[in-house]
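Section 5: illustrative case.
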């Protein structure tokens, strides 16, 4: 009788894909985009406005 292969959970499989070296540039660009959107949505984005 062959041993059963344990099936990975959804989050474990997703974590392994995100942390794989093949996807570092994609993950990094998504994080930078998210940080940019968060900055522009915050009150700190008013620092970018020219003085009135």
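Designed sequence:
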């Amino acid at each position: 009788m062959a041993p059963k292969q344990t099936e990975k959970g959804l989050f474990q499989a997703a974590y392994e894909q995100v942390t794989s070296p093949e996807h570092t540039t994609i993950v990094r660009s998504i994080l930078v985009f998210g940080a940019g959107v968060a900055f522009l949505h915050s009150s700190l984005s008013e620092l970018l406005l020219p003085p009135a």
